[in-house]
Amino acid sequence: MENYFAIQWHITDYCDQRCKHCYIFSEGHPELITMSLDYMIFVTNQIIDFCQKINRKPYIYLTGGDPILHPNFWQLLEYFNKNNIRFCIMGNPFHLTLDNCKRMKELGCVKYQVSLDGLEKMHDSFRKPGSYKATLKAIKIIKESGMWVAVMSTISKTNHQDIPELIDLVDELGVDVYAVGRYCPTSVEKAYDPDIHMTPLEYKEFMDRCYEKYMNHKDSKVTYQLKDHLWALYLYEKGIFKPNFEGLGENQIVDGCNIARNHITILPTGMVYACRRMDSPVGNIYLKDLYDIWNSSKIDEYRQYHKFVKCNKCKLKAFCRGCPSVTYGYTHDMYDADPQCWMEVE
User: Fold this and answer.
1) Radius of gyration of the chain from Cα atoms?
2) Which among 99, 176, 222, 266 is least buried, having the fewest CB atoms inside 10 angstroms?
3) CA 56 to CA 5: how far, in whole Å?
């Protein structure tokens, strides 16, 4: 497989929805920013140069807001195509037609990701009325265009009961990729809301139900992506994941969270984040070369693996480390213990 580096790039804040777990609108009504075409060309060239310097190929996750609402959306895709950049789009279902999906495919879009946060009643309570049906319709259109279709579910205690049945649905719909990610609280108050917070044992039981469903669909064409790094712990305890511990250095990292390792985020303001799922600014691409940001002491603050309070004592540290962004939402310290990890360490 090609050696890709992932860039999650938000080109606009404009969006048709105001989802309950959205970072942009979580704390009120901010000024909505859209990156200009000139800056988007500049950023693309920065990404190309950066990836050449680190001997990687860029894989851009283009998003927003909803990127298709950007007035220069198609011009950017044409520039990607001209430079042979591999990319996918994470957006809404509302503006997708067969013609524009085919055009995205022709310009090199590999995959289009939509969200389903439960069955119809639950999903529409998170997103907006009609969103569920619009998403099911969009899935068919994306598939017909020839792009891969991915479905992502953001879960908390609020909606986790819907997910096992949703796994059956995505199999029926024939999506290419399905993944579940935990809700990242945008404040400590939200984190411990009893309608949102899941205890470690509750979360493990949820993973049990998901895993049973995945096994029921093991011959499916759907790739059930085990996005949450706590799957490493779950599968280790089941004897399925058998890591090689031999020769591992104290701070050697093999797998797990890619923050400041194989991934960065760029916002419409030009700010670069170590991870979009938490407050993690490391520089501004308009003011500093992306390669220099990557090698700065600021981003290196997110690579201090010896600081993990609980994971540093765990044999799976090199392979897991839970989700630092979820941890940050609970404690404002990404190196604290993951709030859903059930592993007991000395």
Assistant:
1) 20
2) 99
3) 6
What would the pLDDT profile of 123-166 be if each residue is shown by its tens digit? 999 888 999 999 999 999 999 999 999 999 999 999 999 999 99
Give per-residue pLDDT as tens, 18-28: 655 556 655 55
Say if residues 324 and 334 touch (Cβ distance below 8 Å).
yes
Strands 281-284 and 271-273: antiparallel
- Helix then strand then coil, in percent of the chain rounded to 5, is 40, 15, 45
Using CB atoms within 10 A of its CB, is residue 287 exposed (0-12), middle (13-18) or buried (19+)?
exposed
Residue 221 one-letter amino acid: K
User: Cα-flanking dihedrals φ and ψ of residue 240, to 5°?
Assistant: -90, -45
- In this predicted structure, the answer to whether residue 67 has a pLDDT above a threshold of 70 is yes
Q: What is the pLDDT of residue 114?
A: 97
Q: Which residue has the tokens 């603050």?
A: 301
| Nearest-5° Cα angle at 227, 104 to 127 | 60
| Each residue's pLDDT tens digit, 232-249 | 999 999 999 999 998 888
Token couple for 106: 């022709």
SS3 for 239? Answer: coil
Contact present, 322 and 341 (Cβ < 8 Å): yes
Q: Which residue has the higher pLDDT, 186 or 239?
A: 239
Q: Check if the beta carbon of residue 69 is closer than 8 Å to that of residue 19.
A: no
What is the identity of the amino acid at 72? N
Distance of CA 231 to the CA centre of its chain: 16
Classify 7 as helix, strand or coil: strand
What is the distance between the alpha carbons of residues 91 and 198, in angstroms, rounded to a whole number? 27
CA distances from 58 to 164, 176, 293, 309, 345 (A): 34, 22, 16, 33, 38
pLDDT exceeds 60 at position 1:
no
Residue with tokens 């590999």: 110
Percentage with pLDDT > 70 across the chain: 95
Q: In whole angstroms, give the CA distance from residue 5 to residue 262.
A: 5
